[in-house]
Design a protein that fits this description.
By secondary structure, the chain is of the alpha/beta class. Helices cover 59% and strands 9% of the residues. The strands form 2 sheets. It has a 5-stranded mixed β-sheet. Helix 8 runs antiparallel to helix 10. The longest helix is centred in the middle third of the chain and has 31 residues. The N and C termini lie far apart (47 Å).
């Protein structure tokens, strides 16, 4: 790579053992090991090129070491949803899929789309996010085991019941760890108290927002709604006007926010009034709840930005 600065874009396909690197100013795809030594070599290589942007896919954790190492080295990194990249590849006629091809697609995606940069999480934030992800896994396993138990005979059901008991103990211990982390950080504790002051926001939703939506309070209402996946998107073509729908964003945030909104639609006076007004206007139940999700998220975003506790009169943006 040469040092063309802002003219250079880089795509990195992340594998368990390797990083396949494609740059817009060279034809050949380079390969580096996905370990500390390989990432140091890659960082040195990229520092010379000073690329405008580096894009990687979220791969369930294999990208974390590379992201942290490259951001620490002072290069610009964005981590994107793999589905978005695959749709981009199909739109540009790239149907084959290999590590080399994927790296080139990511490079092209970086130059064409220029997605948002990734903020480097500190060690506490990474630990908190990992514990939150583990909590979701345990909840999922408990739900799956309960479904199996309903379809099982007495002997098998007994073993499943014992396993559920063990999983619930692990879940309780993990939730205690999450509460301890929140309470040990003055910043997180303050944010947690503000969030939980809102009727409908309990410990689980507050913890998830702290871990998986750290941008809350830092973006405007449209940006935070899009990031959480609750912004309505048009589906129009010519004279056809389709129904707007929400999709994309951070699915785990959207799912937990939906549950919080169900509670808020009953016990939060502002959200309950808004929900009832939408229903009285003939809006379907699900559409009204999604609108309430967006309103609740906007209120939480405003509260964290302004550092104000909940009041029905003053919590609105």
């Amino acid at each position: 790579m040469d040092s063309q600065g802002s003219d250079v874009f880089v795509g990195i396909d992340v594998c368990k053992a390797s990083l396949e690197v494609s740059a817009s100013d060279v034809e050949r795809v380079l390969s580096f090991r996905n370990d500390k030594r390989g990432i140091r070599a890659l960082a040195g290589h990229l520092r010379q090129a000073q690329p405008a942007l580096i894009v990687m896919e979220a791969t369930g954790g294999y990208e974390r070491l590379a992201v942290a190492g490259l951001i620490a080295a002072g290069v610009r990194v964005a981590v994107v949803n793999p589905r978005q990249v695959r749709e981009f590849a199909r739109a540009t006629g790239t149907l084959a899929k290999t590590d080399t091809i994927d790296a080139r697609v990511l490079c092209h995606f970086a130059a064409a789309v220029r997605p948002q940069l990734r903020r480097l999480a500190n060690a506490e934030e990474q630990e908190f996010s990992e514990l939150q992800a583990r909590r979701r896994q345990l909840v999922g396993m408990i739900t799956a085991e309960k479904n199996r138990m309903r379809l099982s005979g007495p002997r098998v059901a007994k073993g499943i019941r014992q396993h559920i008991g063990w999983l619930e103990k692990r879940l309780a211990a993990l939730e205690a760890d999450l509460r301890h982390l929140v309470q040990s950080s003055p910043i997180w504790r303050s944010k947690d108290e503000l969030l939980q002051s809102v009727p409908g926001v309990g410990p689980a939703l507050a913890s998830l927002l702290l871990a998986d939506l750290p941008e809350l309070g830092e973006l405007n209402r449209r940006e935070i709604a899009a990031l959480a996946g609750v912004a309505p998107l048009n589906r129009d073509s010519g004279v056809f006007r389709g129904r707007r729908a929400v999709w994309g964003g951070r699915g785990n945030v959207r799912a937990m926010l939906f549950m919080g909104t169900l509670v808020a639609s009953r016990f939060n006076p502002l959200i309950r009034t808004f929900y009832q007004r939408l229903r009285a206007a003939g809006k379907p139940k699900k559409l009204a709840l999604v609108a309430c999700m967006r309103k609740l998220l906007t209120i939480l975003n405003s509260m964290l930005r302004n550092q104000t506790s909940w009041t029905p009169q003053h919590a609105q943006p």
